[in-house]
Design brief:
Pfam family, one: p450
Helix content: 40-55%
Largest sheet: 4 strands, mixed
CATH topology: Cytochrome p450
Protein name: Cytochrome P450
Number of strands: 11
Bound molecules: protoporphyrin IX containing FE
Strand order of the largest sheet: 1-2-7-4
Keywords: Heme, Iron, Membrane, Metal-binding, Monooxygenase, Oxidoreductase, Transmembrane, Transmembrane helix
Number of helices: 20
Family: Belongs to the cytochrome P450 family.
GO molecular function, one term: heme binding
């Protein structure tokens, strides 16, 4: 009986597959080419045969890592709007960008691209405007300029430790060192639980190595979110932690790291609910209801995911920007010398201390950081937003509701009309009389309603770390370092192919 049933199912399956491949896919392709509401939008046609196949192909061939470079070429070929999937258009037009990402925008985040499992209950993944605004308003006060100033001592203390630690090392892996520095700042700043990553002998705590190993999984997360969600569910819920550790030590380390974040924030909540108020935390307002703002106290899942998000969102982004800055400052000694002269005006000795507000007065340092942001990009995957109800007229086309619009910061940052010789790292361009136009094309933190929550903290991290590091140390690349190490791929964040490894000598004057 079973055999018969199986035989019947099998015999039914083959024609079904044939019909799907020979009838459904070709007919759908014809529909997408000629009858779909986006049919007139230019773009490469073969990609439209199957979105899933195109996505899979890009992962298998490595094209995913180059996607943002390929998109730049597509815009040169097809113009400011390119249809890159059946229902998705990629844009390269600054006015449209500013409309889509403005405060009060009606274009929500696209669910497909915002289902990162470890942050699914966090601010980052909130699609609803009202819900996102309510949650953001509970966290934002802790990231205002004044709030960052109030806890600047945390940054100074960690930078002191970082600068002392590097003096003990012969060669320094700065890519990792910066991540350790930022991790210790964020964990202390956000929930008083310093991870002491800077005390690791080689700036290589196991969770950091796990982050490096697993970051490639971002490709699956942003192309096949359901598959990634399922895999995460298996690892997180179905398997006991020791089994996970046996199957994949990296995944085990990563999950232990996440557990530590969860524990830190839940401990704080417990103390807060017990009446303790002298707590350094960014989650205070999430521990309680706020009926006036219509906000309920955050659930356990929400707190845990927010705790992980601040590290996921704040660590690699800031650390990568610092890495890029030091790389170019070492590569171009003339620019470094100019910066050093500027720094000496406020840091008379190599070990002098300085406040962030003083560093804000140094135009060349500001210019170095802006040029660094132009090269480090923040997030390099396109930021996805849905066309709202009623559709939208964009660049001469009517896009129906739920069309996915994509914008890549990289493409704006490398616009040759706004930034002549765009691939040359040149801070001088930020010192021109009128920088309004170029500022409009610099958006490492995104813009508007969903602009990065941590941008003031990120600026403070960069100003203080760069100023004190460059003032104190004469830095050289190690012999085995090559420029290829700094080539990067698009795996949501720009991921460099190698590490920035250097030697450092204390300056004497
Ligand atoms: C150089 C450093 C940083 C860069 C370039 C950067 C960039 C960005 C970008 C581009 C987004 C928007 C993502 C999107 O819409 O998909 C974002 C969101 C976010 N960032 Fe940052 N970030 C940096 C540092 C930080 C830091 C230090 C924190 C906090 C500790 C932080 C917390 C967040 C949060 C919570 C969001 C989500 C906001 C929302 O969805 O409403 N970021 N960041």
């Amino acid at each position: 009986m079973l055999e018969k049933l199986l035989g019947f199912a099998f015999r039914g399956l083959i024609p079904a597959i044939c019909a799907y491949l020979l009838l459904y896919i070709p007919l759908r392709f014809v529909y997408r080419l000629y009858f779909h509401p986006l049919a007139k939008v230019p773009g490469p046609k073969l990609r439209l045969i199957s979105d899933s196949a195109t996505r899979l192909h890009s992962i298998i061939t490595g094209a995913y890592g180059r996607s943002v470079f390929d998109l730049r070429v597509m815009h040169e070929q097809y113009g400011p709007i390119v249809r890159i999937f059946s229902n998705e258009v990629h844009l390269n037009d600054i006015d449209t960008y500013n409309q889509i990402y403005k405060v009060g925008t009606k274009f929500p985040k696209t669910a497909f691209y915002y289902t990162y499992p470890a942050a699914q209950y966090s601010t980052f993944a909130l699609l609803d405007f009202k819900a996102a605004q309510i949650r953001r308003s509970a966290i934002l006060p802790y990231f205002s300029k004044q709030a960052v100033r109030k806890v600047e001592w945390i940054l100074q203390e960690k930078i002191d430790l970082f600068l002392n630690r590097v003096s003990e090392m012969d060669t320094i892996n700065l890519s990792r060192g910066f991540r350790c520095l930022i991790c210790d700042i964020i964990t202390t700043y956000s929930y008083e639980k310093c991870y002491e990553a800077l005390r690791d002998p080689n700036f290589s705590p196991s969770w950091l190595l796990a982050f490096e190993e697993l970051v490639g999984a971002n490709r699956v997360c942003f192309t096949f979110p359901k598959v990634f969600e399922f895999m995460s569910w298996v690892f997180e819920t179905l398997l006991p932690r020791p089994t996970v550790k046996k199957l994949s030590p990296e995944m085990g380390s990563m999950m232990e790291f996440q557990d530590t974040c969860s524990k830190a924030v839940l401990d704080q909540q417990k103390r807060w609910l017990a009446g303790e108020r002298n707590i350094t935390t960014i989650f205070e307002q999430l521990f309680q209801d706020d009926p006036k703002k219509g906000r309920k106290a955050a659930t356990k899942d929400e707190l845990e995911d927010e705790a992980f998000l601040v590290i996921a969102a704040g660590m690699d982004t800031s650390a990568h920007a610092l890495t890029v800055a030091v790389y170019y400052l070492v590569k171009y000694p003339d620019i470094q010398a100019k910066l050093l002269e500027d720094l000496k005006t406020v840091l008379p000795n190599p070990r002098s201390e300085v406040k962030e507000e003083t560093l804000e007065q140094l135009p060349f340092l500001q210019a170095v950081i802006k040029e660094t942001f132009r090269f480090s990009h923040g997030v390099v995957n396109p930021m996805a937003r849905d066309v709202p109800a009623g559709g939208a007229n964009i660049l001469g086309y009517h896009l129906p509701q739920a069309t996915v619009t994509l914008n890549s910061h990289y493409i704006y940052h490398m616009n040759p009309e706004v930034f002549p010789e765009p691939f040359t790292w040149n801070p001088e361009r930020w010192l021109a009389q009128d920088t309004k136009e170029v500022e409009n094309y610099l958006m490492p933190f995104s813009r508007g309603a969903r602009i990065c929550v941590g941008l003031n903290l990120a600026w403070a991290e960069l100003l203080l770390t760069l100023a004190r590091l460059i003032r104190r140390y004469d830095i050289s690349f190690t012999d085995d370092f090559t420029d290829d190490n700094m080539d990067w791929v698009t795996w949501f964040l720009p991921i460099t192919q190698g590490m920035l490894t250097v030697t450092m000598k204390e300056r004497t004057e």
